[in-house]
Amino acid sequence: MEQIDYIKDSLDIKDPNITFEKEFDKFSTHKVFYAKLDYDAPQCSSCQEKMAKYDFQKPCKIPYLEMVGYKVLIRLKKRRFKCKSCGKMAVAKTSLVRENHQIPNIVNLKITEKLMSREAMSNIASDLAISVSTVYRQLNRFESKTDLNWLPENMS
């Protein structure tokens, strides 16, 4: 149990619902950690009845920041819930990644930081073990939008 807590602390993951399994794979180029996201069943969003735990999704691959010179990949299984009355399905949510995404928030912040330091997009992608299109998406997401229909009353 101590090794599992150490993994969670060293990756700086704060979500208490994510539990790491004992085994992990260490390749020559990267490390793969296996984790599960599980918590008590929430209420159904449509009928407000209590949902039941159903099963786990296929593990999603979450690229994470480098650790001790190795690229890190987290294979996260998310719990699915099913409403007994209306049959609606839901997937567990975490603060690690945005809903319906696989790139963690901390990696998105690192991409933004590297874009502000004017690094090449291909270098950012290779450093963080992500695709160049992910870097482009992050750039478009944080693009500043200026309103040219309005000017301040006093200009410096």
TrEMBL record:
Residues 41-86 form the Transposase IS204/IS1001/IS1096/IS1165 zinc-finger domain. Signal peptide: none annotated. It comes from the Bacteria. PANTHER family: TRANSPOSASE FOR INSERTION SEQUENCE ELEMENT IS1557. This is Transposase. The lineage of its organism: Bacteria, Bacillati, Bacillota, Bacilli, Lactobacillales.
